[in-house]
Protein 1
Amino acid sequence: MLCHGPIVALGPYWDYDGPVARFRMYPTREQEEQMLLHCAHARYVWNLAVEQHSHWRKGHKAAPGFAEQCRQLTEARREHEWLGAGNQTVQVQALKDFAQAKNAKFTSGFGEPTWRKRHRHEGFRIIGDDRVPEFSDDGSPRVNVKTGKQVMGRKATVQKLNKRWAQVRVPGCGWVRFRLSAKGKGAALPDAKTFRITFKNGQWHAAFAVIPDPTPAPGTGEVIGIDRGVTITAAISDGRKLNCPQATTRERAQIRKHQRRAARAPRNSPAKTAEYAKVAKLKAREANRRKDWCEKTSTMLARTYDLIRFEKLRIRNMTAKAKPKPDPDLPGQYLKNSRAAKAGLNRAILAQGWGLLRQRTEHKAPGRVEDVPAPYTSLRCSPCGWIDKNSRKSQAEFVCTNCGFTCNADANAANNIAAGQDADIPRPRRTAGAGGTTTH
């Protein structure tokens, strides 16, 4: 057995979270209760696997792998009625997800698998129960070397009901309906082997593992640069300025109202939970708008331009919290470090969707996206190459102190980014006073 041994209501939309197609699900009350039970079982098995591996120490026997954990799971299902009443496919897939996360801890960027919490990590993965023949890339059937028979793969069982509705078969729940998009790729049935069901902010979603085809290049040879900022989300070198939609003034007021009510409610009370749920629902609406804008904008960029250049930004470092400043005169005390202002700037940066826009553009236009080093792109005059910090008069105004060139500061930076890192971009001399260009 598993042990401690040595071991809002939004409309449909096509959304990508990496190589997946995501659809809004509408289960019945009975189906929702069963899927919540699947979430609990998957979370329980995952946390047991995390606990097993947390006991491992260097020099000790290796923690149990996927095959051993599956054997332990079979024993645990016999001994524990609650676990045995659940679906074995859901529980085995949770162990498989853990094994994949463990193997990818150095390449995924997320590190070691961590604990999953109720109400925060609600979801489970399903592998399709439909058997379909598999074929090689050249169209020939894949044959098992030992048996000589054709290899049969797995496929999620999906049916289209009408133009806007479809249904997928979920173990223990039967057919669960989900909403198709009105047009585009989201209007077609997903063809995937596996899919993941998640529950967040009162909404169910099914994410099918479908890798979309790259967007073909227009063939015009046009190159653009994109400068990302807070006031203007994306300034394009062709003169266009794009802004990511934010929460409205009314929604921000509602968020503050519910946060105040939650702060005044008794601890661990239903009222506090309800108010925080309302806050989460409003913030989820803003996040959905941001994702939708990033999807549409990245598609437009991939279809319109042959080469897309972004300013290389370290967003993780830019949004790090302010470090405390110890007071040298009073041990144990700290000086003011503008923590509140930095937190506000971090929220403003993350609300623009910089990273998602860059990531989705790379997914849709592979090989046609480049990163340009950020230094001096906002201080260099795009026509003459003069670099001077005094040329940046304000956030929006750029006036070159050498040639007198005047334009929007973000548009000037976008032009420098479009030139690329291979262009002859001058750098200032250390001895230059007001600025200047490097001569070789």
Protein 2
Amino acid sequence: MLKKSLYFTHKIREFLRNYLVYYKLIKAVNKLNILFNKSDKELRRYYENCELYLPKDSKWRHFRFFLRDGVIKINDQIRDVKTLRKYLLRYLPTAVFYSTSAWLNPRKIGSLSPNLTNNLFLYNDLVFDIDNINLEDARKDAINLIEIMTKLGYNLESIRFTGAKGFHVFFKDKTKINIKDPIKRELYYKEKRKELLNYLLKNNINLDSSVTLNTRSIIRLPCTVNCKTGYVCTEINHDELKKPIDEILENVKRIKIVPKSMIGGDAEAKFIRNLRLTIDKYQNQIYDYDAYFISNKVLGLKDRYVVFLRYKNEIFPKVVEDIKNLQKKFNLNDAYLFKTESKDEYFALCLKTVQKNKLIKILKNSLAINKNNFNDQFLRISSKYYDESKIAKPPIYIKTINSDSNDSHISNAHLKFLIDKGMKVYRYKNLHGNTELLTYFDKIKNGRISEKRKVIYNKLYLQ
């Protein structure tokens, strides 16, 4: 009981320490950002008090922020204005975009995962992007588009001034689609959009067809600042669109944006962005990631396994000593030792094939942290990914602990894995099992497996 109490006390302290460090760092980053960039003061003042807009079914939309030194995807479902404001104030983006399509899992579009639900298409907005350096010409093109679309039986939903070179015009999509397969549904939308665009282009309507045709397009979010001009992306009605462009601009809010020459240099901007992203990973992603793993099970043989040993919080000499003792006691072959980016965390792989009862004896006699796990063991072979960003490299080979007992049967598949990593290995004679590795794609959430999928091994995973 006392041990459990001490364990939970330690975990609570660890959580509070991480929580406090995170917010102290965020505060420091925001101060640095203000020093390097005067525009952020105006942006912060605006986003603290402005009315914000959320598109229909915002929780199914993908949001993307453009920063001064790159692009960041928001790995969250933005369900309300409060959540959106939180991210706007955290990153102070130069531009904010969202997807024209709704997705079942908008945070993971095109991610590492082979899971279809990460790209499950729901529906697409019927939107047209009219861009022209001459805003007056863009205004006239928007009016002509509305006239033609109205004649075709489409109802106008909204018009938005983008804050720069043109307008976004939305219509209610009258096409009824009852296709269950998400891939076929997405293709059907594309075909319908293509037919409509061909008709409009024949009628000399100037627009960016890619936004309408591409179901994975993103467009600027209303009520957010276009930092190229300082204008706020603003919704206007049809009557306002008929006014001269100068009158339209008089009613559009504009934020004072400092010219880029007055902003902190690229090195400073990159430093701020990388520091902020590092803090986010530290707080949110340390226990959440996607990765590929291989099992210690030897396929093609019944009840045969290789030996995986995982060490944590043990000094390197002690790890080596423990492995040598196991080699001597259980006649294990050479052990291949890997290290992760985490401090004092090691993985060892012995290729000798053993039955489960012997594997249990080996584990029980070791200092490994997996010594009491007698189910299948797994070794991470890929980088860790979080929202398509690489947050940790694969375990790195550091040493071979040689043994005098290399005449036993060793796993053919696990040997191939070491060769695929470009390692120099002993020329073993007695190969056991087939060359197929039991491989899984895992999604880790809060340190636990939330999803596990069997996949075909590919050496590209080792990158």
Protein 3
Amino acid sequence: MWTVNKAACACKKILLIRGMPLYLRFQAGKQRGCSQDAVRRVFLFLQGKLAVCGGFAASALGSVQTVVSLCNLLVYWKLRTLRSSGSKKAILAYKVSLFCVTSHIKRNKKEHVMQQKALIAGISGVIGTALAEQLLSKGWQVYGLSRGRTQVPAGCQTFAADLTSVDFVNHALKDQQFDKVFFSVWSRQKNEKENIRVNGVMVRHVIDALGERLRGAHVALVTGLNHYIGSFDAHGRGAVAMTPFREEQGRQPVDNFYYAQEDELFAGANKYGYSWSVHRPHTIIGFALGNAMNMGQTLAVYATLCKETGQPFVFPGSEAQWNGLVDMTDARLLARQLEWAATTPAAQNQDYNTVNGDVFRWKWMWQQIADYFGIEAVVPFPGNIKPLEGRMDDAPAQWRVIAEKYQLREADINNLVSWWHTDADLGRTREAFADVSKSRKAGFAGYQSTLDAFIELFKKLKVGKFIPT
């Protein structure tokens, strides 16, 4: 990989001979600034020539600092030439021109780095929301696929489509082209056979709708640690990979819709010539309304119900989860890893575990959550599993009362919680945590304290008036 200076040196003749006459037409003593369009054209020209001559990755080329550094080099080269000619007026004009370009780029950083165009399938979910916010913060153009039932982050453009319908998807994506495509989508069915059928075709429909327009792009798929454990239907049955889970341990001999989605991803890569990455988070901590798998929000609502109604804050899971080691994944950390893999050529065509980087025991974490909400945790372990789904029959009516009392934004508890998923995760009879050495060795050094992730989510829910302050 060449440095900026080496790449700039390699293509300076092209830049000086072709770039400057075309895009830096400033008159001495008359030009005090340059148009936004001119700056954009200069940026795109320099970026394109660096890509050709320097062999840079597209992600590195999106850096404002790269362009500013190149402009500084051009100042040096051009001034040497102009000084030898003895033209003071020309020297002044060139200094003013380059100052205008670099200043304008710095002032409008976000606009001028908006080179990547991303599509997120499942943009309204907990992962899709975090990913959209991450990419928007970096100046990406972000598009989303969803059914249009829930809100998406401001700044995103969405296509409403039922991904199980090939006609809907083809219509929504007609003539669209993207640099990166991210899948964070699934639809829960009555059994794993149906999960495989439905969730596999959703990935296939999007990939086939884009077809040859994906050539040279990157497609990322988010699955999860059930890759090593087995589907929700298979929890507690059959062999489970040794912990900590490692990518080389491969698939388990059970039905699993994650495998079907991976197979569609790999088949599309072979057919359409795109790079890919697979990301396997553990239980996600993050914000989204109407999400099927959202333990963080579920526990926040459960703790609030206990505080307002006087119910005991009882751990709903198994003794193995209460005492064993476990890890989790902050949706923001996953979003950063997705961006990293999509923009780092050396990291592509690989699968990665994605967890926060710390481990804990629920018998410790349960007390921390109770302390935050000012309630008493039921400790030690109550002796048997007490699933939430069987204890929350009165919760919808209770939540409507709480929402009215505190003027909360969401009175329908079903848009905030996923009792079944929290029960499934906390009810496992075996420990589950992952090793992230592979992504660290490849260059992704992300870390997030899980307790901090919970607390930050709870604070966000309070600020947004989804739970009482």
